[in-house]
Amino acid sequence: MLDLSNDPSYDYDLINLPQSLTTIHxxxxxxxxxxxxxxxxxxxxxxxxxxxxxxxxxxxxxxxSIGNFAEQLIASSMLKTRLKNCKLSFFNVISxxxxxxxxxxxxxxxxxxxxxxxxxxxxxxxxxxxxxxDDLQPGDIPSSVTSLQLFQTRLIINVLPLSLRSxxxxxxxxxRNLDATIQQLPNAITSLTMSSPYYYFKVLRLTDQxxxxxxxxxNNQKVSIQGYGFIDMDTLIQQVRRASQGPSxxx
Length: 251
Prior knowledge:
Layout: E1 2-3, E2 23-30, E3 43-49, E4 63-66, H1 75-78, E5 85-95, E6 109-116, E7 127-133, E8 147-151, E9 166-170, H2 178-184, E10 191-195, E11 200-205, E12 210-213, E13 216-218, E14 221-224, E15 229-232, H3 233-243
Parallel strand pairs: 1-2, 2-3, 3-4, 4-5, 5-6, 6-7, 7-8, 8-9, 9-10
Antiparallel strand pairs: 10-11, 11-12, 12-15, 13-14
């Protein structure tokens, strides 16, 4: 692994890299187009892309993450990859229709930030994460999606596909209609995670009105088991309402 992510001053050619290299992490503002292409490279992570990039030079690339300026990617090169996981963040809110290649990707896991979907996501996605995505419409989330994460993106019930089984949301985005939103969540969603800067908790749906609140886990370690156990719909709504009010209301 080559990790330069914590060296913001690095902006030199990346050539003569080891042929066995599988992972590269590049810093924010990387602007050097001269980059070697080890044949085994399967993960490329760039905090912020400052130059055009042809990713087709990486024949076995499976995971691509561009933290900013993803519009600098050469569109035609995206269609020549074997990507399974893709994370794209844009500098300004952009319509994916103007990108062109998104709908033709064959990825299973996709993260998008600062864009509008415009009903053009690939039908291969099973796990979708959206951050700062505006104006979601019915049909924007493909019927193949079983896991959905929404960050700073308003939850709209009628955009959720019937295939959805796991939902992760920031409850601050549903404060205005909190009760109705939780009550209207499809019964097919069996795993519900609520988070904010102040708290995190996860519940598993057992029946229409009965849930099991899981112990809080962060970084693969149990942080607190206080408050876990069986809860009904009314208790769930009360806990989410208190937690969305900040540290003083944490359940």
